[in-house]
Amino acid sequence: MSKQPLLKVSINETGVNKSVDFQEERSSWTTAELTPQELLEHIYRGKPSNPCLFKEGRRSAPTAHGGNTVYIDMDDGITFDRVVSLPVVQSYGVLVTHSASSGVQSEKEGVDGRERLRIIFALEQEVQTNFFSNDDVVLAKNTKLQHLERCALITFFADQLCEQVGIPKMIDNSHNSISQLYYGNDGASEVEWKKPIAGGGKVTAYYPCSIDRRFWIGEGFLPKEDQSRIIEAYKERKAEELKEFEGRSKEQLSQDALIAQWIFDNDILDDRICEDRKDFYSVVMAAKSIDEALLEPLLRTLERFADHYWRMPDEVERCFHDFHHNGRTTLATLIHWATECCPEWRALCPYTGGMHNPPPRLSPGMYLLKGINQINIII
């Protein structure tokens, strides 16, 4: 019978817990083959890790490859004891630890005392990565194609966890991001965050990190036969999504940028985009995909929703820089949400045949008038 392989992961020595210099971190990753205990010790020093390996030590989706683990963060308040008893964890799990904010109470939105766990699964066979192009831009537009095997395995483990704890989906879906940064937890160092203040702006604040040092180490791993079966089933289900995406021309992107900026400048989006983290960040991804110059108007319009940790301006900006220009999430996503939030927007936008002069940008106070049609206000 096969025995559990060493865990082939990327590790980083930058920062402690969530206090990380992202400029330094992004290009200083190294590959390591560790036992579960050694990986736990790295995490317990507060250092970041990632299930992917990175070409030239640079963290990004196009440079990511290989690895024989899958990380899933479960922030849904499911107890440690229950998680480690789940069949999927018992069969394939190798390590369960607490995140830096697990069990912590703070005035920061979302840090509310619930248990937050990192679950790491082992694979008998290293993930294969499809470098079908030498162009990072092309790869960035085709993440699911490049990382087909990893996406299939992430989906499998996430679905199994949700099914076995009885939830439709997880609060945190960061596992879907191939180059996600997974922070450590040293059990001592405070976590820095940016606290909004009255009248606008923000100040540096801190909350204590989790001191829950319970962990679980398992001997499981996903056998290569099951791994192949899961990947083949995923290919069949996702055949359309796995076709190569060519992207838009420079001329098309220039026109897209005008429409996107108009949507942002006129605060067309409302809190319907905030119901799901994936939806919220699809807007951020679309903006980055169209034009990096959209960052400032994007931050201006999204500042109205800065009432939760993953909607704070500094977190939005960090993720914006993580996403890739000219990617697969495009203007169509913004059009979808603009139409959901304000069905008449096209009749007002000068770049879609509407009004010749865009209406003035609404003040944040206008959005306190619940139940009033935005279009009536603009007109």
Q: In words, what does this structure look like?
A:
35% of the residues lie in helices and 13% in strands. The longest helix has 18 residues, at 148-165. The chain has 2 domains: 7-237, no CATH class; 250-378, no CATH class. It has 15 helices and 11 strands. A 4-stranded antiparallel sheet has the order 6-8-7-11, sandwiched between helices. It has a 3-stranded antiparallel sheet with strand order 2-1-3, with helices on one face. 39% of the residues are buried. Residues 358-379 have low confidence and may be disordered. The protein has 379 residues and is an alpha+beta fold. A hairpin with a 5-residue loop joins strand 9 and strand 10 (202-207).
Architecture blueprint of SSEs:
Layout (H helix, E strand, L loop, with lengths): L6 E5 L10 H4 L4 E5 L1 H9 L4 E2 L2 E2 L9 E2 L3 E6 L5 H6 L1 H6 E6 L18 E6 L13 H5 L2 H4 L1 H18 L25 E6 L5 E6 L8 E2 L6 H14 L12 H16 L11 H14 L4 H8 L10 H10 L8 H11 L3 H4 L25 H5 L1
Antiparallel strand pairs: 1-2, 1-3, 4-5, 6-8, 7-8, 7-11, 9-10
Q: Can you describe this structure in just a few lines?
A:
This protein is α+β, with helices and mostly antiparallel strands and 379 residues long. Helices cover 35% and strands 13% of the residues. The chain has helices at residues 22-25, 36-44, 80-85, 87-92, 136-140, 143-146, 148-165, 224-237, 250-265, 277-290, 295-302, 313-322, 331-341, 345-348, 374-378, and strands at 7-11, 30-34, 49-50, 53-54, 64-65, 69-74, 93-98, 117-122, 191-196, 202-207, 216-217.
